[in-house]
Each structure stands twice: as structure tokens, then as C-alpha cells.
Design a protein that fits this description.
There is one protein chain. This protein is α/β, with parallel strands linked by helices and 215 residues long. It contains ten helices and four strands, in the order ααβαααβαααβαβα. A four-stranded parallel sheet has the order 2-1-3-4. Strand 3, helix 9 (172-184) and strand 4 form a beta-alpha-beta unit. The N and C termini lie far apart (61 Å).
Length: 215
């Protein structure tokens, strides 16, 4: 009953779960998931929360450090290119066209950050447990057996990741998962508020507006 999903499985499911693909696709995915004895990350979430917000929250949790590093090196590369274009004269960089400066110092680093922020999970080698794909949602017998085995799933996860939104503590199942983890006393529980990605993206958008050249 204990199955593990890859980063690609989890992110694709969260991205496309709002589309009218039907539950059969999830069932077919379940049959291909490998059987395991433990996973790296157990994702606890509210089914009422937007799948798009959960996609961004998982991206934020897994990829923020990588995205910041990619942002830093893209800025460094942009500066080197601009200095080289100015004949290795630092003061000459300021004489470059505003559009070029904006593109190299604002748009390019933010684009690199966004790609690393949302796409890094697709290359993760961690194993995940997410109920909507790691439990057969169509086979009622297997679903019932899996639900009874949730304490074992939680206890055999290295980390419990809580995707916290305003509905989380209003869902009995979420509270049950947290209580099971607390009682088991195994692994680490980490909280990821779903507003954090929105806040991060808003800051990036503000930086774009702030750095945009005046007409």
C-alpha cells in the first residue's frame, strides 16, 4: 500500500488536477508508483486549498535556496556581460541603453529565478507521499486499507511538510495527520504557509515595476 511519488509526479498532479482529466488518470498513475518502506517527504494539505497555491508552496519549500543562488549568478553574469560590452569600463556600463540595462539586470535575473523557483522540483530526487496520487482514489477497498495505514505512512516519512492555508486546521484529516506525527515522534514537521509564494512573486513583480525604464 505504501507508494512513493517523484517530484515530477507531484508537481504535474498539482498543476493539472484542476483540469477535467477525470480520476482515472490518477488511478493509472497510482499503479505505476513504486512500493517503498519509507519516503523523504509526506505532504499534508487541505483538499479545499487551491492546487495552484499548493504547487507554489511546494516549489517555495524545495526550491527557494536554489532559485536565490541562480538569481545571484545570473546577476553576476549580466554584470560581466555589460562590463565586457562597455570595453571593460565600469563607468561605461551606465552609458548603455536603458532597455539593455533593464533586460540584463532586472528581467533576466528574475526570469532565471522564476524558472528555478517553479521548475527545480522536476529535477528533485526526493521521494514524496501525497494522498491524492499515492492512494488509489477509485478502488474503495484499497483506499480504505490505505487510510487505516496512514499512521505507518507518517511514521516512515523523514519529514512532514504542512501546506498551511486558512482551511487547514478546519479539516479533520489534516489535524489527524499532525496528531499521528506528534504521537509517532519520528521525523521533522515543517510549516509552509501558502501565502509565502504569493508574497515572493509580488516582490519580484514590484522589482520589475521599480526597475522598468521610464518612457
Amino acid at each position: 500500500l505504501f507508494r512513493a511519488a517523484s517530484g515530477v509526479d507531484v508537481m504535474c498532479d498539482l498543476l493539472f488536477s484542476t483540469l477535467p482529466t477525470g480520476p482515472g488518470q490518477r488511478r493509472s498513475l497510482f499503479t505505476f508508483l513504486p512500493k517503498v518502506s519509507k519516503v523523504d517527504l509526506y505532504i499534508s494539505h487541505s483538499w479545499k486549498c487551491s492546487s495552484w497555491l499548493k504547487f507554489l508552496a511546494v516549489s517555495h519549500y524545495l526550491n527557494l535556496d536554489f532559485a536565490l543562488l541562480a538569481f545571484f549568478f545570473s546577476c553576476l553574469l549580466s554584470v560581466l556581460i555589460l562590463v565586457a560590452r562597455a570595453g571593460w569600463s565600469v563607468p561605461g556600463v551606465a552609458q548603455q541603453p536603458q532597455g539593455l540595462l533593464f533586460g540584463c539586470l532586472v528581467v533576466w535575473p528574475i526570469l532565471v529565478f522564476a524558472l528555478a523557483y517553479t521548475g527545480g522540483t522536476f529535477f528533485s530526487n526526493r521521494s514524496f507521499w501525497l494522498d491524492q496520487i499515492c492512494i488509489d482514489q477509485e478502488n474503495l477497498l484499497l483506499k480504505s486499507q490505505a487510510l487505516r495505514a496512514v499512521p505507518a505512512f507518517v511514521a516512515n516519512a523523514e519529514r512532514l511538510v504542512l501546506l498551511l492555508d486558512e482551511t487547514y486546521f478546519g479539516r479533520l484529516w489534516c489535524i489527524y495527520e499532525l496528531a499521528v506525527h506528534t504521537k509517532a515522534g519520528s521525523g521533522v514537521a515543517e510549516l509552509v504557509p501558502t501565502w509565502m509564494p504569493t508574497w515572493t512573486i509580488s516582490i519580484l513583480w514590484f522589482q520589475v515595476l521599480l526597475g522598468a525604464p521610464s518612457s
